[in-house]
Write a structure and sequence with these properties.
3-stranded antiparallel beta sheet; Citrate Synthase, domain 1; Cytochrome p450-Terp, domain 2; two-stranded antiparallel sheet; mainly alpha; binds carboxymethyl coenzyme *A; 428 residues
Length: 428
């Protein structure tokens, strides 16, 4: 008998099953043979929220939540944030290896020269209300792009596929910037292909009458690092959505609109916005203890705290905390930082948070930096979606190349009514 097995005894029948174990995992389909009667459906595993279910094998991002480790393609996030840049990391995550000089030049050129949107997209975006949430505009516009590139449906044609990947990574900052300008009632600024990825984004947000916009190097760098930190995070809610939609062979624009919609929620990428609103509501350091009391009595969540995978300090939060100081030297200190620091101090000492391993996550400090840089709060989830586009697309390619993948279709445990006869309304 191989040691790499799990022996299960079904106490309902006394029967024993030997199930193979690979990578510390059993295949859920191996449970199906466990039955009381031959015509039973067979055993399922029940896992709301997929807390203990691996939906895929992946070689992109590694997280050790207990130790607070995050690596893209084997490279620690601290090294990538410190030594690399967003477009190089995007290449790494997409293709599996760091680019050579030539590969990097071509990749950067391609991305920086596909930044323009079809002119009709501007009219589409104009149709939104003046106060439309930029994330709603972002989701809708990404979905609309699928109608501009019908060849995007050829998802098994590598050349067509790569074209859409470049377009999406290139165009998401333009969509994001246009949604911001729309909310401000400002004219759209066309991309400047001479600038870096982050620099061009800042230009599209800020440029007014200057002939040539020059981003502040410190802010451009900080934004590039923030983008790098958000590139991928394995099978989170948005990425899982990308894979679920992608599994029906949908085009990448439609799938990505769904992934962005999943990211929008306050428990996921919308948390950075929720953190800022929470800090503004607390308003003063002296109100922190009362707020924490409310969290402990379950009236509220402490937004920006806790994570499904990290049961230790989120390594991205550590890096962001450091960048904050560099940004504040340029922008001036964000008054909300003191409230955040006090919240963190109290929470990390308090049994409620310690027992549940609740630590600051990536969203706890990112919003404070974004606000100091002048972004309106509603833009925060969009700032998350721009770099995550890379992760979504890399995971989508991995899905398409994975012969073991099938259309995503979970099972249910039906607990509703048994068959019953229709009763006419007059006698109900
Ligand atoms: N404030 C107060 N209590 C919390 C929090 C929080 N932020 N997060 C978790 N808990 C408690 C939760 O009530 C539960 O307590 P108990 O076991 O007594 O019922 C325990 O901690 C475990 O939490 P859980 O809800 O089972 O954990 P989960 O893995 O299902 O949820 C989470 C993870 C991120 C959704 C959750 O921690 C949360 O809602 N955090 C606040 C929102 C947030 O910051 N989200 C950003 C996540 S990081 C970036 C991203 O994913 O996009």
């Amino acid at each position: 008998m191989s040691n790499d097995t799990l022996t299960i005894t079904d106490n309902r029948t006394g029967q024993t099953y030997e199930i193979p174990v690979t990578h510390d995992t059993i295949n859920a389909m191996d449970l199906r043979q466990i039955k009381v009667n031959p015509d039973d459906f067979g055993m399922l595993s029940y896992d709301p929220g997929f807390k203990n279910t691996a939906s895929t094998k992946s070689a992109i991002t590694y997280i050790d939540g207990g130790k607070g480790i995050l690596r893209y393609r084997g490279y620690p996030i601290e090294q990538l944030a410190g030594k690399s840049n967003f477009l190089e990391v995007a290449y790494l995550v997409m293709f599996g290896e760091l680019p050579t000089e030539d590969q990097y030049q071509k990749w950067s050129y391609d991305i920086l020269h596909h930044t323009f949107l079809h002119e009709n997209i501007k009219q589409l975006m104009d149709a939104f209300r003046h106060d439309a949430h930029p994330m709603g505009m972002f989701i809708a516009t990404v979905a609309a792009l699928s109608t501009y590139y019908p060849e995007a449906r050829n998802i098994f044609n590598e050349k067509d596929r790569m074209k859409q990947i470049v377009r999406l990574i290139a165009k998401v900052p333009t969509i994001a910037a246009f949604s911001y300008r729309h909310s401000r009632g400002l004219p759209y600024v066309y991309p400047d292909n001479d600038l870096s990825y982050a620099g061009n984004f800042l230009s599209m947000l800020d440029k007014m009458t200057q002939v040539k916009y020059t981003p502040k190097p410190e802010l451009e760098k900080a934004l590039d690092v923030l983008f790098t930190l958000h590139v991928d995070h394995e099978q989170n809610c948005g990425t899982a959505t990308m894979r679920v939609i992608g599994s029906s062979n949908t085009d990448p624009y439609s799938a990505m609109a769904g992934a962005a919609a999943a990211l929008y929620g306050p428990l996921h990428g919308g948390a950075n916005e929720a953190v800022l609103r929470m800090l503004m509501e607390i308003g003063d350091v002296k109100n922190v203890p009362a707020f924490v009391k409310g969290v402990k009595s379950r009236e509220r969540l402490l937004m920006g705290f806790g994570h499904r995978v990290y049961k230790n300090y989120d390594p991205r939060a550590r890096i962001i905390k450091k960048i904050a100081d560099e940004v504040f030297e340029i922008t001036g200190r964000n008054a909300l930082l003191d409230i955040a620091l006090e919240l963190e101090r109290i929470a990390l000492e308090d049994d409620f948070f310690v027992q549940r391993s609740l630590y600051p996550n990536v969203d706890f400090y990112s919003g404070i930096i974004y606000q100091a840089m002048g972004f309106p709060v509603a833009m925060f989830p969009v700032l998350f979606a721009i770099p995550r586009t890379v992760g979504w697309l890399a995971q989508w390619i991995e899905l398409l190349n994975d012969k073991e993948q099938k259309i995503a279709r979970p099972r249910q445990i039906f607990l509703g009514e048994d068959e019953r006869d229709y009763v006419p309304m007059s006698v109900r």
